[in-house]
Amino acid sequence: MKKVLGLVVSERNLGNSEILVKEIMDAVPDPCARELIRLTDLKIEPCRACYRCLSPGSRCVKKDDFNFVLDKILESDGLIIGLPVYFLGPHGSYKMLTDRFLGAGHYSRHTRGKPCAVVMPFGMPGWEGYTRTAALVLPRMLEMRLVDCWQVHAALPGESMLKDENREYARRLGSGLFTARESGRGPRECPHCGSDLFRLLPGGEIECPLCAARGNLRDGGVPDFSRPGHTRFSAEKLEEHFNVWLVEMRDKYLRERDILKEVQKPYRGKQWWVKGRGGANGGTVS
Fold this sequence. Notes:
By secondary structure, this protein is an alpha/beta fold. It folds into two domains: about 180 residues, Flavodoxin domain (Rossmann fold, 3-Layer(aba) Sandwich), CATH 3.40.50.360; about 30 residues. The protein contains eight helices and nine strands. The strands form two sheets. It has a five-stranded parallel β-sheet with strand order 2-1-3-4-5, with helices on both faces. The chain is globular and about 65 Å long.
């Protein structure tokens, strides 16, 4: 029996992220086991870059809920992410989660080719910012088959279901989750990863900041990535980054940490930290 995991990245109970994820999951054909995680209910701490998760068979050593979320993702057959747009980007807890996937080189063998759909409710048109590109990071690192990256204009809780076309689209997305192919690319999206942001380079070149593919800007502002080149999300480049380069950096640190500690020494006495009082009313704004 297939298992589908819904990852809701929002504190709003029955908000658009939750409702859209549930509508999609409900349409997945039975037999199907369904599980939901509200990421904001969990404790996901910042990555401390200790590199311990880079060793095969090792897990993150932090005592929070990351390994719980990771296990649920790895054991699922399909992933639905509900990710609202906040201030020109995705909810901050999503970034906190993706930062913890330093060991993705070991995790992706469990997720490679599995379907993933991302649905992103947003309130004001034109304020979506970089949300789409940021949302792609997790499924691309895990080499999942991204079947959709759907932006939905809906600000008020439940507003997304006031439009029949949204409900119908969600149902189609769920019913075809395991049979759908990789989502197509629009004319102004990176053909390799789907990002809609580009970096302007000298000589008329452009670069996708997400996958590092390079191309040129044609007349009419249409990006052209037709020439051959590498992308960081190819299987070879992911292997090189996570299982070669990062491991080499870990080993280099172990070799040179005594030298690095000497570099750090002059700065240890500069203790100019200030700390907040904490609590709900700990700030200075009244």
